[in-house]
Specification:
12 strands, seven-stranded mixed sheet, Aspartate Aminotransferase, domain 1, 2 domains, alpha/beta, 35% helix, binds pyridoxal-5'-phosphate, Aspartate Aminotransferase, domain 2
């Protein structure tokens, strides 16, 4: 099946018992057994639930994985992946990974003895240099947030294979419609499904797909042990969101390209960060089908930031991303406020940097909101 069909019919499609075309919400915690120990394959909903399983099969199909997992949030998914490691293990993370990922590695797992180094993963050499005798995994995000830096997944996977490390790719910004890390050699792909996969800013969830049975068994053991599962109602909502992923992503990309090109022409815009505009990007074109819906841009003054933010009619001033509605934020004051100012400066996250999650509205209306001088 081609992707556009898979996104509609992948996973468990409909309900065999009644013919219902959507998967029912199995709002149950437990399952009746015929005799002691003789069950239907479901015993208890932390371990397995048919609605969640339909979603898990769907993400496995879309990412081309061996098995999928649905968690209560993107962070629950990432934390469960980190629980595959033990005290004394070393991991390498990107130096501008999602703030919550950095926080859980730096403040939670480091207390449990898992050590890390944060490196600029856009250079494969940096990763190679950071590998130690106890390194077990590399976690990368591409494009990164908010500066849209790209990492060559296939090149990183070569180092990972050579050094026997797990390669984990956070594919939240791209979705499997635009980028499939497992096909490029990653072992685990993780999503904040809260963003594009759900697509409607109405559910917080995490999804994972893994490439082997051995990894699937280990991760299921962690998921069942720690209980970081997604409930059946949210699982259903997420399936509903994913069914229109291909349609939405096409419009997100089309709108974002037009807006990025328009921003480039504005005298008050100092820099535009959108992968599709960078001539160096051709090198990575093989890994991404299109460039997604996220744009960051730096404006000439604080005054311009204030003008744009104070007169929004269509775009919503909010954190998060990936919904059908356009969302705008100032990373230095919002999503990245907890990053120390010197580190923000070093990373290039200026106070005049604006991040836009381009929605699927009419592009003219979004652009009208971005004009600071009307
Ligand atoms: C939002 C986000 C997360 C965290 O996901 P939650 O669903 O908010 O827990 C992880 N990675 C990236 C890239 C994100 O944007």
């Amino acid at each position: 099946m081609k992707f556009n069909t898979l996104v509609i019919h992948g996973g468990i499609d409909g309900d065999k018992a009644t013919g219902a075309v959507t998967v029912p919400i199995y709002q149950t915690s437990t399952y009746k057994q015929k005799a002691v120990g003789e069950h239907t394959g479901y015993e208890y909903s932390r371990t397995g639930n048919p609605t969640r399983e339909a979603l898990e099969k769907l993400i496995a199909d879309l990412e081309g994985g061996y098995r999928g997992f649905a968690f209560g949030s993107g962070m629950a998914a990432l934390s469960s992946i980190l629980m595959l490691f033990k005290s004394g293990d070393h991991i390498i993370i990107g130096d501008d990974v999602y703030g919550g990922t950095y926080r859980v590695v730096d403040k939670v797992f480091s207390h449990l003895g898992i050590v890390y180094d944060a490196v600029d993963t856009t250079s494969v050499d940096n990763i190679r240099k950071a590998v130690k005798h106890n390194t077990k995994a590399i976690i990368v995000e591409t494009p990164s947030n908010p500066l849209m830096k790209l990492t060559d997944i296939a090149a990183v996977s070569e180092i990972a294979k050579e050094q026997n490390l797990l390669l984990v790719v956070d594919n939240t910004f791209m979705t499997p419609y635009l980028q499939r890390p497992l096909e490029l050699g990653a072992d685990i792909v993780v999503h904040s499904a809260t963003k594009y996969l759900g697509g409607h800013s109405d559910v917080v969830a995490g999804l994972v797909a893994v490439n082997t049975e051995a990894l699937a068994e280990k991760l299921h053991f962690v998921q069942n042990s720690v209980g970081a599962i997604l409930g059946p109602q949210d699982s259903w909502l997420l399936i509903k969101g994913i069914r229109t992923l291909a349609l939405r992503m096409d419009r997100h990309c089309e709108n974002a390209t037009k807006i990025a090109q328009w921003l480039l022409l504005q005298t008050w815009v100092k820099k535009v960060y959108y992968p599709g505009l960078d001539s160096k990007v051709t090198h990575y074109e093989k890994q991404m089908k299109d460039y997604g819906g996220m744009i960051s841009f730096e404006v000439a003054s604080q005054d311009i930031v204030d003008k744009i933010m104070s007169d929004l009619k269509v775009i919503t001033l909010a954190e998060s991303l990936g919904g059908i509605e356009s969302l705008i934020s100032v990373p230095a004051k919002m999503t990245h406020a907890s990053v120390p100012p010197e580190k923000r400066q070093a990373l290039g996250i200026k106070d005049t940097l604006i991040r836009l999650s381009v929605g699927v509205e009419d592009v003219e209306d979004i652009i009208k909101d971005l004009r600071p001088f009307i």
